[in-house]
Design brief:
By secondary structure, this protein is α+β, with helices and mostly antiparallel strands. It has 20 helices and nine strands. 63% of the residues lie in helices and 11% in strands. The strands form two sheets. It has a five-stranded antiparallel β-sheet with strand order 2-3-4-5-6, with no helix packed on it. The chain has a four-stranded antiparallel β-sheet with strand order 1-9-8-7, with no helix packed on it. Helix 5 runs antiparallel to helix 6.
């Protein structure tokens, strides 16, 4: 019964989505509010239907309904409750259903927030419903999640072992909330192009939506790095894998937009550029979906070859053609209200920031597509490895890090020499001091030195900005420093929350630089034997093989090794690492063996131990021992980013006071003093 109910709901959903898209566009075109209201009701009913589909599929997993092919392929009778829930989106069909549900959720929120508007909103609603209709069509034809399986098997095949992890409930959800969230600013941008209202209204409407999408995509990328680090067992958290790259691309483009849009708000410049960035970010998210679901790239993350790829390619082409045509037709309306007056200005620094971000995006895109293009053109696949990306992108990333500290120091329009000297004194001193400390300590790696020095420069800029703001508030209101800083965060969350995000980026850059000093060794050890490895900070770690244990757990046969760790001769703990072979109810192997990495994490280094296998079935084991510097700071930087993003997104902040009120005049006086501090 579940297959029929689910498939029927999807068909009705397509009808509602198509009707709603047409009704919203027609109502906007003809000025008939009744049609727009009808489209809104269709959007509400559509959300209910897609939610019902999602719940039906979840119920099928929880009750082991193997009459549904997707359920039979992704779970077994021994699959724990937790993994039965995450298996709902563990493969192609379920991931598309999750994507469609999130789109329907975003559409519902847009309806509830903007239903009283009549300028851009109806066209944006039409675009969003049209996009949902495509995803429902995919689930109806090439990738049906409710396809019936006959005869019904007694047990299923099971979830991919790499997906049996806590990251499965957070990484895809955060990533898809980011991808689908880009649909909202894209829809309003398309509405602006359709109506010709390409001023600042669409930016004002979608600013928070854009930040929400960027925020969730950032979380998805960070959680994905953590998942890769502790599950895949290759020793790192970013491998420049094609699927990692296509998730990074829209993040880079949207990061560029979040910076350049400030120039449009402040000076009325870069209107063409900002619209292009919004359109590009959404198209890149669909492009990434096409690559991961078409089978044209080889990746541990990607789905197998399926007809879905052709559907997404067609959808991508239609979206690109429509976007380009509308964009080109509206170019005469996108004239800048001001010009760049000086290359030494905040506008110029933001522009350079954008060019560097887009340069990185182009390098990532080129490196990702090169194997595909060379195979098509010359019949030979030239694979681009991680070192190529590192070599090409590192210099650009360092320039980007430096600009992150320079931008806030330079005045709008034109900066004077005395102002530059005063502004750059503290950050330059911080960067130089950090560089000298590392040189005295013996560090000689050029890029690591550059990352730390530039990071200290940016940190000095941020501290100076907070100090200046706190000092101005103290003079204006007599507030203590701590209260003044809290007031800065409370009353101008977008600006000072953004600085917190910049602190997170600095921490990430410095942590990434730490991987330049990664050391590893491989050893075959009998119980009682020891392998040693020296860390970059001079400590010697000894890894002693204590023994092997083997047992069955749920749907897998586990081989576990216990390793004792000593630092400079002193015992500091034990690390357990496993090799797992997954089996079905009859004891047959179902997937390739997977690894449970053993990690001992610290502020300076992570000790990373992988059991590669046993020698001829004995207790002699082959291990890979790795020392990864500063990995803890990657996750801490991610935590700081979460905090900074929440501050930016928290409702309220600047501009809540009414004009002419006492609070408004007080804040204006504070702003004058703050500018005087500059």
């Amino acid at each position: 019964m579940i297959p029929e109910l689910g498939q029927g709901a999807l068909v009705v959903g397509i009808v509602l989505a198509v009707y709603g898209a047409i009704a919203a566009a027609t109502g906007a075109q003809t000025g008939r509010p009744a049609l727009i209201e009808s489209a809104q009701r269709a959007a509400l009913a559509l959300f209910a239907l897609v939610t019902a589909c999602f719940l039906l599929l979840a119920y099928a997993f929880l009750t082991f309904d193997f009459s549904v092919r997707y359920v039979a392929h992704q779970t077994t009778l021994s699959t724990p409750f937790y993994y039965r829930v995450t298996a709902v989106w563990g493969a192609l069909e379920g991931s598309i259903l999750l994507w469609a549900w999130m789109l329907a959720l975003y559409t519902l929120i847009v309806v509830l927030r903007h239903r009283g508007e009549r300028d851009l909103y109806p066209w944006a609603l039409s675009v969003m419903l049209g996009i949902i209709a495509f995803f429902l069509l995919v689930m109806t034809l090439p990738a049906p999640p409710f396809e019936r399986l006959t005869p019904v098997p007694a047990d299923g095949r099971g979830l991919n072992p790499l997906l049996e992890d806590t990251g499965m409930i957070t990484h895809p959800v955060a990533l898809y909330l980011g991808f689908t969230g880009f649909t909202v600013p894209f829809a309003f941008a398309m509405a602006a192009l359709v109506t010709g209202r390409v001023g600042d209204a669409w930016i004002t409407t979608t600013r928070r939506w854009t930040i929400v999408a960027w925020y969730f995509l950032s979380l998805g990328l960070l959680i994905g790095g953590w998942w890769s680090y502790h599950v895949l067992g290759w020793g790192g958290y970013w491998a420049w894998d094609p699927v990692e790259n296509v998730a990074l691309l829209p993040w880079l483009v949207m990061t560029a937009f979040l910076h350049s849009v400030m120039i449009q708000e402040k000076r009325g410049m870069l209107k063409k550029w900002n619209l292009a960035l919004i359109l590009g970010a959404w198209l890149l998210s669909i492009f990434g979906t096409f690559l991961t679901r078409s089978g044209v790239i080889a990746s541990v993350h990607s789905f197998t070859q399926s007809p879905v790829g052709y559907f997404f390619l067609g959808f991508l082409c239609v979206g690109t053609i429509a976007s380009v045509i509308l964009y080109v037709n509206r170019l005469p309306l996108l004239q800048a209200e001001a010009t760049l007056e000086s290359m030494v200005s905040r506008e110029a620094s933001f522009l350079f920031n954008n060019l560097l971000l887009i340069g990185i995006a182009f390098a990532v895109l080129w490196g990702t597509l090169l194997p595909i293009l060379t195979e098509w053109v010359v019949g030979v696949k030239y694979t681009v490895k991680g070192p190529w990306f590192t070599f090409v992108i590192t210099p650009v990333a360092m320039a980007l890090l430096l600009l992150m500290g320079i931008g806030p120091l330079i005045a709008w329009r034109r900066a004077s020499i005395p102002n530059l000297r005063r502004q750059f004194a503290v950050p330059t001193t911080a960067g130089t001091f950090a560089l000298l400390i590392l040189l005295v300590a013996g560090m000689r790696d050029f890029w690591a030195l550059t990352a730390v020095a530039f990071g200290a420069f940016v940190f000095g800029t941020i501290v100076q900005e907070f100090a200046r703001g706190a000092r101005a508030r103290h003079r204006q209101y007599g507030e203590p420093t701590a209260i003044a800083v809290l007031q800065l965060l409370s009353r101008n969350r977008r600006r000072y929350g953004g600085y917190i995000v910049h602190v997170a980026i600095v921490l990430l850059f410095i942590a990434f630089a730490g991987m330049s000093f990664k050391t590893e060794t491989q050893a075959s050890l009998r119980p009682g034997e020891t392998a040693t490895l020296e860390s970059p900070d001079g400590h010697v770690y000894a890894f002693t093989h204590l023994g092997i244990s083997q047992y069955n757990a749920l749907n897998r046969q586990v081989t576990a090794a216990l390793v004792e760790v000593r630092r400079d001769g002193k015992a500091i703990g034990r690390i357990r690492t496993e090799k797992r072979q997954h089996v079905d109810a009859l004891g047959n192997n179902t997937f390739e063996p997977s690894t449970e990495v053993g990690i001992m994490s610290g502020l300076r280094v992570d000790l990373y131990v992988v059991l590669a296998g046993l020698v001829n079935g004995t207790e002699q084991a082959v291990f890979r021992f790795t020392i990864n510097p500063l990995v803890w700071w990657v996750w801490f930087g991610g935590f700081v980013l979460v905090i900074g993003g929440l501050i930016v997104l928290w409702p309220g902040g600047a501009g809540v006071a009414m004009k002419g009120s006492k609070t408004s005049s007080v804040q204006a006086g504070y702003a004058v003093k703050l500018e005087a501090e500059r």
